[in-house]
Amino acid sequence: MNLCVIPARGGSKRIPRKNILPFCGTPIIAYSIKTAIASGCFDKIIVSTDDPEVSAVSNAYGAETPFVRPEELSGDFVGTGDVIAHAVSWARDNGLDVDHACCIYATAPLLEPQVISEAYQQLINTPKAAFCFFRHRVFSPDPAGPSAKYRWPGRNVQSR
């Protein structure tokens, strides 16, 4: 089965309650949930949270919140990998045969379903692949003609 995990704790310091704040009139986490559903890639979409309000909003938009994220995984300095590993372990401990897991951040309202679908196809069409990332397209007008700039950590790549 394919599992989508959306990490969304309740205790953001910089922007309190950011995962459920409205973005263009809709809780920001709802965009990630709806995108995961629309991609058609997932058998189960789980929001990993420590917050009852985040859980309620997530459920209202179609995600499951089958556990409360443990306190030791809810701090400011806990890595995403640990949160995803916990969710996958929970799924396996509860009888789910997880083949693939995908992390979508709660604050990714511009992510499009076809990007997820393309990444998944890339993953399954590359037998030796353990994971797949798709670069993020940043639209930037270029007077020299059509182009796209891709942002990778630490560098930008120009593509024509």
How would you describe what is shown here?
This protein is of the alpha/beta class and 160 residues long. The chain contains 4 helices and 8 strands; from the N terminus they run E-E-E-H-E-H-H-E-H-E-E-E. The strands form 3 sheets. It has a 3-stranded parallel β-sheet, sandwiched between helices. Strands 6-7-8 form a 3-stranded antiparallel β-sheet, with no helix packed on it. It has a two-stranded antiparallel ribbon with strand order 2-3. It is globular. Residues 136-143 and 145-160 have low confidence and may be disordered.
Low-confidence stretches: 136-143, 145-160
- The helix-strand sequence is EEEHEHHEHEEE
Strand order of the largest sheet: 4-1-5
Radius of gyration: 17 Å
| Average residue pLDDT | 86
Structural class: alpha/beta
- The outline comes out as globular
Helix count from the secondary structure assignment? 4
Proportion of residues in helical segments: 25-40%
Cα distance spanning the termini? 37 Å
- Please give the largest β-sheet: 3 strands, parallel
In percent terms, what proportion of residues is strand? 15-25%
DSSP summary, beta strand count: 8
SSE inventory with pairings:
Blueprint: E1 2-7, E2 22-23, E3 26-27, H1 28-39, E4 44-48, H2 52-60, H3 80-93, E5 100-103, H4 113-124, E6 136-138, E7 148-152, E8 155-159
Parallel strand pairs: 1-4, 1-5
Antiparallel strand pairs: 2-3, 6-7, 7-8
Helix pairs in contact: 1-4
Give me a quick take on this structure.
With 160 residues, the protein is an alpha/beta fold. 29% of the residues lie in helices and 20% in strands. The chain is built from four helices and eight strands; from the N terminus they run βββαβααβαβββ.
